[in-house]
Write a structure and sequence with these properties.
With 247 residues, the chain is an alpha+beta fold. The protein has helices at residues 2-13, 36-50, 61-67, 73-76, 79-89, 126-133, 142-155, 157-160, 200-218, and strands at residues 23-26, 31-34, 112-123, 169-179, 184-195, 226-236, 243-244. It contains nine helices and seven strands, in the order H-E-E-H-H-H-H-E-H-H-H-E-E-H-E-E. Pathway: Cofactor biosynthesis; molybdopterin biosynthesis.
Length: 247
């Protein structure tokens, strides 16, 4: 049985080179005269065991070059996404030609005025919201401490995000507002500079660190606090110019 299955597997990989007439099939260990009727029966048996037939030349590119491409559409469908993925990788400036991480060389870029606005939301829940509103948290002024932490976070972005450039920021603003509609803190951060690369990461780091600080200041009262919707809202300057979410 093992010999029959082994031969059938071999025949299934070479259907394109077997003619309707009798042929002599040869390998290092096998050399038999094959009757087409027996071959078809074996193929049908293997198909009932293993399912649909594999592509004739999937594992044998040397055969494909001699008899032409016989890959079915089910195989070709994987080639196009792979090609697109390679093309998309060329657009990722932090990825080198071999796929390794790299820091972008911005020396050839022009110095322009650049700004970025980001935001996030910290969901407190009613009980913690009331405590923050009344300034009764044990660690003190939640919003005041988070504001300073966010500003400091923006200045430390290149230390936290490894491939970010060390930017000379000209301004950082972080505002936190209590939102009684959903018992949350709305955080907004803005960064600006005049330089060769944008400040989007600085703005998003600012709001992220501010949100984490709110959590730290309030975690003794609740572990259910969540930080959500960290996002860039707007940016200006640079080659891509103005961009705004929703426009």
């Amino acid at each position: 049985m093992f010999s029959t299955l082994r031969r059938a597997m071999l025949f299934r990989r070479f259907p394109a080179v077997i003619s309707p007439a009798k042929r002599t099939f040869s390998s290092d260990k096998v050399s038999d005269e094959i009757d087409l009727r027996i071959l078809n029966e074996l193929n049908q048996e293997m198909q009932s065991i293993f399912g649909a037939e594999p592509p004739a030349t999937m594992d044998y590119p040397e055969l494909e070059s001699s008899i032409g491409s016989t890959k079915p559409e089910s195989c070709r469908q994987y080639e196009q996404p792979a090609k697109l993925a390679t093309e998309d990788m060329s657009k990722l400036t932090h990825v080198g030609v071999s796929g390794e991480a790299q820091m972008v060389d911005v020396s050839s870029k022009d110095n322009t005025k650049r700004t970025a606005l980001a935001s996030c939301k910290v969901n407190l829940g009613k009980r913690v919201f009331d405590l923050v509103l009344a300034n009764q948290m044990g660690k003190g002024d939640v919003l005041g401490v988070a504001k300073i932490a966010g500003i400091n976070g923006a200045k430390q972005t290149s230390s936290l995000i490894p491939l970010c450039h060390n930017i000379a920021l000209t301004h950082v603003r972080v505002d936190l507002r209590l939102n009684p509609e959903d018992f949350s803190v709305d955080v907004e951060g803005e960064a600006s500079c005049t330089g060769k690369t944008g400040v989007e990461m600085e703005a998003m780091t600012a709001v992220s660190v501010a949100g984490l600080t709110v959590y730290d200041m309030c975690k003794a009262a609740s572990k259910d606090i969540t930080i959500t919707d960290v996002r860039l809202q707007r940016k200006t300057g640079g080659k891509s110019g103005y961009w705004s979410r929703g426009e």
